[in-house]
User: Fold this.
Amino acid sequence: MSKQEKMRVMVMDKYGKFPFRSTEIPMPAVGDHDVLVEIHAASVNPLDLLVRDGKVRILQKIDMPHVLGYDFAGMVIQAGRKVRKFKVGDEVYGRPSKGGAFAEYISVNEDDIALKPRNLNFEEAASIPLVGLTSYQVLHEKLKLKAGQKVLIQAGSGGVGTFAIQLAKAMGLYVATTTSEAGAKLVESLGADRIINYKTEQFDTLLQGYDAVFDTKGGETLEKAFKVVKKQGQIVSIVGPPNARFGEEERAGFVKMNLFRLVARKITKIEKIYKVKYSFLFMKPSGKQLEILTEWIESDEIKPVIDRIYPFEDTQKAIEHSESGRAKGKIIVKIK
Assistant:
Protein backbone atom coordinates (compact mmCIF):
# COMPACT_ATOMS: atom_id res chain seq x y z
CA MET A 1 0.00 0.00 0.00
CA SER A 2 0.99 3.60 -0.54
CA LYS A 3 2.67 5.17 2.47
CA GLN A 4 0.05 7.88 2.66
CA GLU A 5 -2.75 7.08 5.08
CA LYS A 6 -5.33 9.32 3.48
CA MET A 7 -6.44 10.06 -0.06
CA ARG A 8 -8.12 12.94 -1.86
CA VAL A 9 -11.75 12.43 -2.92
CA MET A 10 -14.70 14.41 -4.24
CA VAL A 11 -17.77 13.77 -2.12
CA MET A 12 -21.47 14.61 -2.07
CA ASP A 13 -22.88 15.31 1.40
CA LYS A 14 -26.59 15.01 0.59
CA TYR A 15 -28.95 14.40 -2.29
CA GLY A 16 -29.57 17.26 -4.69
CA LYS A 17 -27.76 19.62 -7.02
CA PHE A 18 -25.17 20.74 -4.50
CA PRO A 19 -21.48 21.28 -5.32
CA PHE A 20 -19.08 18.43 -4.64
CA ARG A 21 -16.64 18.88 -1.79
CA SER A 22 -12.95 18.09 -2.01
CA THR A 23 -11.66 16.41 1.13
CA GLU A 24 -9.41 13.65 2.44
CA ILE A 25 -10.60 10.32 3.81
CA PRO A 26 -8.78 7.20 5.04
CA MET A 27 -7.37 4.83 2.44
CA PRO A 28 -9.82 2.00 1.66
CA ALA A 29 -9.44 -1.43 3.23
CA VAL A 30 -8.29 -4.23 0.93
CA GLY A 31 -10.11 -7.54 1.33
CA ASP A 32 -8.77 -10.97 0.47
CA HIS A 33 -10.28 -10.84 -3.04
CA ASP A 34 -9.72 -7.12 -3.60
CA VAL A 35 -7.03 -5.09 -5.32
CA LEU A 36 -6.04 -1.54 -4.41
CA VAL A 37 -5.84 0.58 -7.55
CA GLU A 38 -4.15 3.92 -7.92
CA ILE A 39 -6.66 5.71 -10.15
CA HIS A 40 -5.23 7.58 -13.13
CA ALA A 41 -8.56 8.59 -14.69
CA ALA A 42 -12.30 8.25 -14.14
CA SER A 43 -15.27 9.26 -16.24
CA VAL A 44 -18.59 11.02 -15.70
CA ASN A 45 -21.81 9.15 -16.50
CA PRO A 46 -25.53 9.94 -16.32
CA LEU A 47 -25.60 7.52 -13.38
CA ASP A 48 -23.60 10.04 -11.34
CA LEU A 49 -26.37 12.59 -11.84
CA LEU A 50 -29.11 10.07 -11.07
CA VAL A 51 -27.41 9.00 -7.83
CA ARG A 52 -26.67 12.61 -6.87
CA ASP A 53 -30.31 13.58 -7.34
CA GLY A 54 -31.59 10.59 -5.37
CA LYS A 55 -33.33 9.03 -8.37
CA VAL A 56 -31.97 5.52 -7.85
CA ARG A 57 -32.60 5.23 -4.12
CA ILE A 58 -35.15 2.55 -4.93
CA LEU A 59 -32.32 0.48 -6.43
CA GLN A 60 -29.18 1.39 -4.52
CA LYS A 61 -28.78 2.65 -0.97
CA ILE A 62 -25.77 4.86 -0.25
CA ASP A 63 -24.27 6.35 2.89
CA MET A 64 -23.27 10.00 3.16
CA PRO A 65 -20.83 11.47 2.49
CA HIS A 66 -20.59 9.51 -0.74
CA VAL A 67 -17.90 9.35 -3.43
CA LEU A 68 -19.40 9.17 -6.93
CA GLY A 69 -17.62 7.89 -10.05
CA TYR A 70 -18.64 4.64 -11.72
CA ASP A 71 -15.73 3.71 -13.93
CA PHE A 72 -11.98 4.14 -13.80
CA ALA A 73 -8.58 3.09 -15.11
CA GLY A 74 -5.41 2.82 -13.09
CA MET A 75 -2.60 0.67 -11.73
CA VAL A 76 -2.73 -2.09 -9.12
CA ILE A 77 -0.55 -1.19 -6.13
CA GLN A 78 -1.69 -3.91 -3.71
CA ALA A 79 -3.42 -7.28 -4.07
CA GLY A 80 -5.41 -9.17 -1.43
CA ARG A 81 -3.95 -12.45 -0.26
CA LYS A 82 -6.44 -14.56 -2.27
CA VAL A 83 -6.27 -12.55 -5.48
CA ARG A 84 -5.22 -14.71 -8.43
CA LYS A 85 -6.02 -12.66 -11.52
CA PHE A 86 -3.89 -9.57 -10.96
CA LYS A 87 -0.55 -8.50 -9.55
CA VAL A 88 1.06 -5.25 -8.46
CA GLY A 89 1.89 -3.14 -11.51
CA ASP A 90 -0.98 -4.37 -13.69
CA GLU A 91 -2.84 -1.65 -15.59
CA VAL A 92 -6.58 -2.26 -15.17
CA TYR A 93 -9.99 -0.75 -15.78
CA GLY A 94 -13.39 -1.43 -14.29
CA ARG A 95 -16.80 -0.40 -13.03
CA PRO A 96 -16.97 -0.37 -9.19
CA SER A 97 -20.31 -1.63 -7.89
CA LYS A 98 -20.79 1.18 -5.37
CA GLY A 99 -19.02 4.08 -7.07
CA GLY A 100 -15.96 5.66 -5.53
CA ALA A 101 -13.90 6.48 -8.62
CA PHE A 102 -13.63 10.22 -8.02
CA ALA A 103 -10.72 9.47 -5.73
CA GLU A 104 -6.99 8.85 -5.80
CA TYR A 105 -7.37 5.18 -4.87
CA ILE A 106 -10.06 2.52 -4.89
CA SER A 107 -10.36 -0.98 -3.46
CA VAL A 108 -12.29 -3.20 -5.85
CA ASN A 109 -13.10 -6.91 -6.16
CA GLU A 110 -10.90 -8.67 -8.69
CA ASP A 111 -13.99 -10.01 -10.51
CA ASP A 112 -15.15 -6.47 -11.33
CA ILE A 113 -12.08 -5.40 -13.33
CA ALA A 114 -9.98 -6.45 -16.31
CA LEU A 115 -6.60 -5.66 -17.78
CA LYS A 116 -6.67 -2.32 -19.59
CA PRO A 117 -6.74 -2.60 -23.40
CA ARG A 118 -3.13 -2.33 -24.57
CA ASN A 119 -3.95 0.18 -27.30
CA LEU A 120 -5.63 2.70 -24.97
CA ASN A 121 -4.16 5.21 -22.55
CA PHE A 122 -5.67 5.59 -19.07
CA GLU A 123 -8.03 8.41 -20.06
CA GLU A 124 -9.37 6.43 -23.02
CA ALA A 125 -9.72 3.26 -20.97
CA ALA A 126 -11.61 5.09 -18.20
CA SER A 127 -14.27 6.04 -20.76
CA ILE A 128 -15.22 2.42 -21.46
CA PRO A 129 -16.43 0.30 -18.49
CA LEU A 130 -19.87 1.69 -17.66
CA VAL A 131 -20.99 2.48 -21.21
CA GLY A 132 -19.37 -0.68 -22.56
CA LEU A 133 -20.94 -3.01 -20.02
CA THR A 134 -24.29 -1.25 -20.31
CA SER A 135 -24.28 -1.62 -24.10
CA TYR A 136 -23.17 -5.25 -23.96
CA GLN A 137 -25.76 -6.22 -21.36
CA VAL A 138 -28.58 -4.46 -23.25
CA LEU A 139 -27.75 -5.61 -26.79
CA HIS A 140 -26.26 -9.04 -26.12
CA GLU A 141 -27.85 -10.27 -22.90
CA LYS A 142 -31.25 -8.57 -22.68
CA LEU A 143 -32.22 -8.13 -26.32
CA LYS A 144 -30.17 -11.08 -27.63
CA LEU A 145 -30.08 -9.47 -31.06
CA LYS A 146 -28.72 -11.29 -34.10
CA ALA A 147 -26.97 -10.05 -37.23
CA GLY A 148 -29.37 -8.38 -39.65
CA GLN A 149 -31.88 -7.26 -37.03
CA LYS A 150 -32.83 -3.59 -36.64
CA VAL A 151 -32.35 -1.55 -33.48
CA LEU A 152 -32.99 2.09 -32.59
CA ILE A 153 -30.39 3.49 -30.20
CA GLN A 154 -31.50 6.76 -28.64
CA ALA A 155 -29.06 9.69 -28.20
CA GLY A 156 -26.36 8.27 -30.44
CA SER A 157 -23.79 11.01 -29.81
CA GLY A 158 -23.88 10.62 -26.02
CA GLY A 159 -21.55 8.53 -23.90
CA VAL A 160 -23.63 5.34 -24.04
CA GLY A 161 -24.79 5.93 -27.60
CA THR A 162 -21.33 6.31 -29.13
CA PHE A 163 -20.29 2.94 -27.69
CA ALA A 164 -23.60 1.17 -28.33
CA ILE A 165 -23.61 2.09 -32.02
CA GLN A 166 -20.14 0.63 -32.49
CA LEU A 167 -21.01 -2.55 -30.58
CA ALA A 168 -24.25 -2.97 -32.51
CA LYS A 169 -22.41 -2.66 -35.83
CA ALA A 170 -19.77 -5.14 -34.63
CA MET A 171 -22.71 -7.52 -33.96
CA GLY A 172 -23.96 -7.04 -37.53
CA LEU A 173 -27.08 -5.02 -36.66
CA TYR A 174 -28.85 -2.32 -38.66
CA VAL A 175 -28.72 0.80 -36.48
CA ALA A 176 -30.93 3.87 -36.40
CA THR A 177 -30.13 6.63 -33.93
CA THR A 178 -31.27 10.07 -32.83
CA THR A 179 -28.97 13.05 -32.49
CA SER A 180 -28.77 16.77 -33.24
CA GLU A 181 -27.30 18.22 -36.43
CA ALA A 182 -24.07 18.80 -34.49
CA GLY A 183 -23.75 15.08 -33.72
CA ALA A 184 -24.72 13.74 -37.14
CA LYS A 185 -21.20 13.40 -38.57
CA LEU A 186 -20.01 11.67 -35.42
CA VAL A 187 -22.71 8.98 -35.40
CA GLU A 188 -22.28 8.49 -39.15
CA SER A 189 -18.56 7.89 -38.59
CA LEU A 190 -19.44 5.28 -35.96
CA GLY A 191 -21.52 3.36 -38.49
CA ALA A 192 -25.13 4.45 -37.90
CA ASP A 193 -27.31 3.42 -40.86
CA ARG A 194 -30.23 5.80 -40.25
CA ILE A 195 -29.83 9.16 -38.51
CA ILE A 196 -32.80 11.07 -37.11
CA ASN A 197 -32.37 14.76 -36.23
CA TYR A 198 -34.47 14.90 -33.07
CA LYS A 199 -34.77 18.69 -33.31
CA THR A 200 -36.51 18.68 -36.70
CA GLU A 201 -37.78 15.08 -37.12
CA GLN A 202 -40.04 12.73 -35.15
CA PHE A 203 -38.43 9.29 -34.91
CA ASP A 204 -41.75 7.61 -34.03
CA THR A 205 -43.32 8.70 -37.34
CA LEU A 206 -40.28 7.83 -39.48
CA LEU A 207 -39.38 4.39 -38.15
CA GLN A 208 -41.54 1.25 -38.06
CA GLY A 209 -41.05 -2.49 -37.75
CA TYR A 210 -37.86 -2.41 -35.67
CA ASP A 211 -36.85 -5.45 -33.65
CA ALA A 212 -35.77 -3.43 -30.63
CA VAL A 213 -35.16 -0.04 -29.04
CA PHE A 214 -32.29 0.77 -26.67
CA ASP A 215 -33.73 3.66 -24.64
CA THR A 216 -31.39 6.11 -22.93
CA LYS A 217 -33.83 9.00 -22.51
CA GLY A 218 -36.93 7.79 -20.66
CA GLY A 219 -40.08 9.88 -20.25
CA GLU A 220 -42.06 10.80 -23.36
CA THR A 221 -39.26 9.55 -25.62
CA LEU A 222 -39.60 6.08 -24.11
CA GLU A 223 -43.38 6.13 -24.55
CA LYS A 224 -43.05 7.06 -28.24
CA ALA A 225 -40.58 4.20 -28.78
CA PHE A 226 -43.39 1.64 -28.60
CA LYS A 227 -44.64 2.90 -31.98
CA VAL A 228 -41.32 1.98 -33.60
CA VAL A 229 -41.13 -1.65 -32.50
CA LYS A 230 -42.97 -4.48 -34.23
CA LYS A 231 -45.31 -6.73 -32.23
CA GLN A 232 -43.43 -9.08 -29.88
CA GLY A 233 -40.40 -6.79 -30.24
CA GLN A 234 -38.47 -5.43 -27.27
CA ILE A 235 -37.56 -2.19 -25.55
CA VAL A 236 -34.85 -1.98 -22.92
CA SER A 237 -34.36 1.23 -20.96
CA ILE A 238 -31.55 2.24 -18.64
CA VAL A 239 -33.39 5.32 -17.35
CA GLY A 240 -37.07 4.37 -17.52
CA PRO A 241 -39.01 2.98 -14.56
CA PRO A 242 -38.03 -0.42 -13.16
CA ASN A 243 -41.03 -2.74 -13.53
CA ALA A 244 -42.28 -6.00 -12.02
CA ARG A 245 -40.32 -7.99 -14.61
CA PHE A 246 -37.13 -6.36 -13.33
CA GLY A 247 -38.20 -7.07 -9.75
CA GLU A 248 -38.66 -10.76 -10.54
CA GLU A 249 -35.24 -10.96 -12.19
CA GLU A 250 -33.64 -9.30 -9.16
CA ARG A 251 -35.72 -11.37 -6.70
CA ALA A 252 -36.95 -8.21 -5.06
CA GLY A 253 -39.02 -8.46 -1.90
CA PHE A 254 -42.77 -7.88 -1.61
CA VAL A 255 -42.47 -4.18 -0.81
CA LYS A 256 -40.13 -3.40 -3.70
CA MET A 257 -42.19 -5.47 -6.14
CA ASN A 258 -45.27 -3.40 -5.34
CA LEU A 259 -43.24 -0.21 -5.65
CA PHE A 260 -41.93 -1.27 -9.07
CA ARG A 261 -45.47 -2.04 -10.23
CA LEU A 262 -46.57 1.39 -9.06
CA VAL A 263 -43.83 3.45 -10.73
CA ALA A 264 -44.12 1.48 -14.00
CA ARG A 265 -47.91 1.31 -14.22
CA LYS A 266 -48.14 3.72 -17.18
CA ILE A 267 -45.43 1.92 -19.17
CA THR A 268 -47.02 -1.45 -18.36
CA LYS A 269 -50.32 -0.27 -19.88
CA ILE A 270 -48.55 0.94 -23.04
CA GLU A 271 -46.63 -2.34 -23.20
CA LYS A 272 -49.88 -4.31 -23.30
CA ILE A 273 -51.45 -2.04 -25.92
CA TYR A 274 -48.55 -2.44 -28.36
CA LYS A 275 -47.74 -6.07 -27.44
CA VAL A 276 -44.09 -5.14 -26.95
CA LYS A 277 -41.87 -6.44 -24.13
CA TYR A 278 -40.44 -3.68 -21.92
CA SER A 279 -37.47 -4.28 -19.63
CA PHE A 280 -35.34 -2.12 -17.36
CA LEU A 281 -31.59 -2.67 -16.95
CA PHE A 282 -29.47 -1.67 -13.99
CA MET A 283 -26.02 -2.62 -15.21
CA LYS A 284 -23.84 -4.97 -13.18
CA PRO A 285 -20.02 -4.95 -13.00
CA SER A 286 -18.31 -7.81 -14.82
CA GLY A 287 -14.61 -8.33 -15.40
CA LYS A 288 -15.37 -11.21 -17.76
CA GLN A 289 -17.51 -9.03 -20.00
CA LEU A 290 -14.85 -6.31 -19.95
CA GLU A 291 -12.42 -8.92 -21.30
CA ILE A 292 -14.80 -9.52 -24.22
CA LEU A 293 -15.02 -5.78 -24.89
CA THR A 294 -11.23 -5.56 -24.71
CA GLU A 295 -10.96 -7.97 -27.65
CA TRP A 296 -13.15 -5.71 -29.79
CA ILE A 297 -11.20 -2.64 -28.68
CA GLU A 298 -7.78 -4.15 -29.32
CA SER A 299 -8.92 -5.22 -32.80
CA ASP A 300 -9.99 -1.59 -33.47
CA GLU A 301 -13.65 -2.54 -34.04
CA ILE A 302 -14.64 -0.26 -31.17
CA LYS A 303 -12.88 3.00 -30.28
CA PRO A 304 -13.40 5.37 -27.35
CA VAL A 305 -15.09 8.69 -28.06
CA ILE A 306 -13.99 11.43 -25.66
CA ASP A 307 -15.59 14.85 -25.46
CA ARG A 308 -13.40 16.60 -22.88
CA ILE A 309 -10.85 15.90 -20.12
CA TYR A 310 -10.97 17.80 -16.82
CA PRO A 311 -8.36 17.86 -14.03
CA PHE A 312 -9.40 16.24 -10.74
CA GLU A 313 -9.95 19.58 -9.00
CA ASP A 314 -12.53 20.47 -11.68
CA THR A 315 -14.73 17.41 -11.13
CA GLN A 316 -17.66 19.71 -10.37
CA LYS A 317 -17.23 21.39 -13.78
CA ALA A 318 -17.15 17.95 -15.42
CA ILE A 319 -20.45 17.07 -13.75
CA GLU A 320 -21.99 20.36 -14.86
CA HIS A 321 -20.81 19.80 -18.43
CA SER A 322 -22.45 16.37 -18.40
CA GLU A 323 -25.66 17.91 -17.08
CA SER A 324 -25.70 20.42 -19.95
CA GLY A 325 -26.37 17.58 -22.40
CA ARG A 326 -23.93 19.03 -24.92
CA ALA A 327 -21.18 16.42 -24.59
CA LYS A 328 -20.37 14.31 -27.63
CA GLY A 329 -18.88 11.13 -26.17
CA LYS A 330 -17.44 10.70 -22.69
CA ILE A 331 -16.30 13.28 -20.15
CA ILE A 332 -13.09 12.30 -18.37
CA VAL A 333 -11.65 13.31 -15.00
CA LYS A 334 -7.84 13.00 -14.99
CA ILE A 335 -6.81 12.11 -11.44
CA LYS A 336 -3.11 11.23 -11.59
